[in-house]
Amino acid sequence: MQVKSVLQQAPGSLAVVKGWIRTVRKQKGVCFAKVDDGSHVDAIQVVLDPSKAGPWLLTCYSLLSSLSLGACVIAEGKIVSAPNGGVELAADSVDVVGPCDNVSPLSPALTLQSHYPIQRKQMTLETLREVPHLRYRTKTFGAMARIRSEASFQIHNWFHVSGHTIPPSPSCRHLQRQHHPPFLTFTRQENGFHQVHAPVLTTSDCEGGGEAFEIFRPKTSETGAPIFPAPVYLTVSSQLHAECMALGLRQVYTFGPTFRAENSNTPRHLAEFWMLEPEIAFVDVHVCCRCFRLTA
Q1: Contact predicate 77/92, CB 8 Å
Q2: Which of 113, 138, 225, 253 is deepest in the core (most CB within 10 A)?
């Protein structure tokens, strides 16, 4: 069960939590550990009280030394009301799946990690760049990943799921009366828009849309000629490819990585980003305005 679901459970229900310890406090033999699995911005507090463990008492005391920041645990217990509101998990059992800052079983003199880098204090983005394998355990990178996932889902949902109907422009209504009603009516329905994938490596700079990164062309061992016969760049836009595809598929869109090689070191400059580019055939400016007004 994800932490996101556990936080919505009513007190008294049983739950199993799997995740990593974000914070841990030990007071008078009682351990309070906040466990996070990335499904929610908040973590669930797991309370481990050896005095209430019963037959699990000895195991409980030995676990207190293993519960540290970054440790991977599986906790089972009952959902109870927290003193400050919300819910917490009164643990009946805790299994340390992956210890942190522990002694290596291969060599007692060698530690698995002398210092867990993700601490409770505020950490700069420059510091987190040095630990890319752990930075998504922080609230900042976790929130960015969830927002990006939701934004990507909503973009694809807008182009595929049935919903609004895009009416024809006033200049084309006489054509609609002469033909079948859906002739110039574009509906967001299943396969209404086709997602297409433009190449990332291209020989086009898309009409000078931006400075392009040029790809190094190694030479083949057989002939000594470059692998690509012409200069190749990382794409700056998929517009030209989408326009060609729209001439055969009518309604298409691309959503993928784009690269710009502008020499700017400001925080507002991105060398790589994802860009959405739709293309529709048989439309005029009035239909385009109606189409994109629906996104507001």
Answers
A1: yes
A2: 253
pLDDT tens track for 92-132:
888 888 888 644 444 444 444 447 888 878 888 888 989 89
CB neighbour list of residue 26: distance below 8 Å, 6 or more residues apart: 32, 64, 67
Record the tokens describing residue 11, joined without a space: 């007190």
In the chain, beta strands by DSSP E:
14-27, 30-36, 44-48, 72-81, 87-98, 165-166, 186-187, 194-195, 201-202, 233-234, 251-259, 272-280
Q: What is the pTM of this model?
A: 0.75
Asked if 42 and 17 touch (Cβ cutoff 8 Å), the reply is: no
DSSP H/E element including 4: helix 3-6
The predicted pLDDT at position 264 comes to 78
Give the Cα separation of 285 and 287 in Å (integer). 6
Residues of the chain predicted below pLDDT 50: 57-58, 102-114, 164-166, 169, 171-189, 191
Question: Within a 10 A sphere around the Cβ of 123, how many other Cβ atoms?
Answer: 15
How, if at all, do strands 44-48 and 87-98 pair? parallel
Mean pLDDT (the chain, rounded): 79
pLDDT at 3: 93
Q: Residue 10 half-sphere exposure, CB side, CA atoms within 13 Å? A: 1
Q: Bridge-partner residues for 40, per DSSP?
A: none
Sequence-ordered strand ranges (E) for 118-271: 165-166, 186-187, 194-195, 201-202, 233-234, 251-259
The token pair that represents 100 in the structure block: 């942190």
